């Protein structure tokens, strides 16, 4: 049995307990809000970090979600306090939400540190909110549980099921190729997002919440429940009850998370055919827990983890199907031999205990080990003279002809040039060319946007071509697909060798050998390097100044250098 804290050991007691002027002031202000000692005395204060926003459709239901968490907290004898946090809306934020992931992480951390909080519930869903909140909470080092916002219902157009992102890219290509009318395109717009909740493909949001559950930071099964299913409200209330218990038992992820839990998360990422974005976020989250997660870990685990979830964009089904097929616990139950089952989770049980009874109800959606989709995970880590610190490719979601491929580079110096030249009839490009986009990394873009699935030139689309090998220092949406080499590090904007690629250079990709080679001599590259100059920064003030000066490269998780804390919590602010 864990030792339970005494009420005087609660962190919030240091605000509300003492008989001094400062605490008098704080208690009087609690009373100002209509609260009395029966609300706070001897009760853990639970912060609900709510990333609700009227301009974030993935989080539109978070006000009700928060109410359900509060219900659970009150049932268990805690005191809930809802604290609004920045909402990172993938749909509307320019240039990219990735620019603001670390800002939300800082906001979450400081909100927890400066207030009289004993434990936290984190409400997130849309891509970057999940890693951001967890990074912040790990650095604040208080007990917390993540409540995932849940995927939206499947999209529908006529008799076609539509998946977030994936089918937008697919039908946009058909429209540009002249195969879809304007009216049909409008009908798709009307039916692709039918309810609140995050993208319902195995994009970045679904990948990150699956990873979070595997890390042991949600209640078992939480990440797969559709946002509009009543079971989602009940999961939120259960999480509220559980966090109160966890405060009393001092069950604290910043202490119980081990490196092995992050290895489990990589297994889950590969088994679900997850988003490449998860790599950057997992490295950053592990850094906050005090662990270095090298890219080589992803490749090693990918090679031995079978892909079991037949989910778009790499497969056929959507998150609602995944939930009814048994959800993440059923999938993890298939790979227990690859997991560190002893890792602790927020319900006080081990990961193995949480998944050992889970069953698959639809073996088309979640495959068993004797009928895998592929023997290896869908993501490979590449190295070579063009990417000395690594690059990644989701080879499960591309045409197999590119697994080993040499082609001539068609180079776009930045996104503006890409937009300008893409549909130029004179663009010298064939189905075997390699499209290269530079200046799209953490510093170059800035913020490492999801530009990695470069649009294909109209003339190739009209010729029936649907995949071309593309490479960039950008990321790609988890709902995207195609032969896209991503996260090239170091990036071109800081003078990485990727900056030296020129029009017509030959590049060779060999996924089996995990290599990416610019077929240019070292002497020639040295000459080009001597002539290379960094582009001037168009804007250099405010948060962007901080970001550009402190962001690390993709292989280091793009966290800020000064936020690395080697897993050591900062001391609590002195109360005066
Ligand atoms: Fe929010 Fe995809 S836009 S999860």
Q: In terms of topology, how is this protein built?
A:
Blueprint lengths: L12 H4 L4 H12 L4 H4 L4 E6 L11 H14 L3 E6 L16 H14 L4 E6 L4 H12 L3 E5 L6 E3 L2 E3 L3 H11 L5 H10 L12 H12 L14 H19 L4 H4 L2 H13 L5 H13 L5 H10 L14 H6 L2 H7 L17 H5 L23 E4 L8 E4 L9 E9 L2 H7 L12 E4 L20 H5 L6 E4 L11 E3 L19 E5 L4 E4 L3 H10 L10 H9 L26
Parallel strand pairs: 1-2, 1-3, 3-4, 9-10, 10-11, 11-12
Antiparallel strand pairs: 5-6, 7-8, 8-12, 9-13, 13-14
Helix pairs in contact: 4-10, 5-6, 6-13, 7-8, 9-12, 12-13, 12-14
The site of FE2/S2 (inorganic) cluster has 10 residues, from loops.
The class by helix and strand makeup works out as alpha/beta
Specify the helix fraction band.
25-40%
Q: Record the strand order, biggest sheet.
A: 7-8-12-11-10-9-13-14
The hetero compounds bound to this protein are: FE2/S2 (inorganic) cluster
Kindly provide the radius of gyration, computed on alpha-carbon positions and rounded to a whole number of angstroms: 24 Å
Mean pLDDT: 95
- Profile the largest sheet: 8 strands, mixed
Number of domains: 3
Strand coverage percent: 5-15%
Low-confidence stretches: none
Query: How many alpha or pi helices?
Result: 21
Rough shape?
A: globular
Cα distance spanning the termini: 36 Å
Tell me the total number of β-strands.
14
Task: Give a short synopsis of this structure.
With about 575 residues, the chain is α/β, with parallel strands linked by helices. The protein has helices spanning about 15, 20-30, 35-40, 60-75, 100-115, 130-140, 165-175, 180-190, 205-215, 230-250, 255, 260-270, 275-290, 295-305, 320-325, 325-335, 350-355, 415-420, 460, 520-530, 540-550, and strands at about 45-50, 80-85, 120-125, 145-150, 155, 160, 380, 390-395, 405-410, 435, 470, 485, 505-510, 515-520.
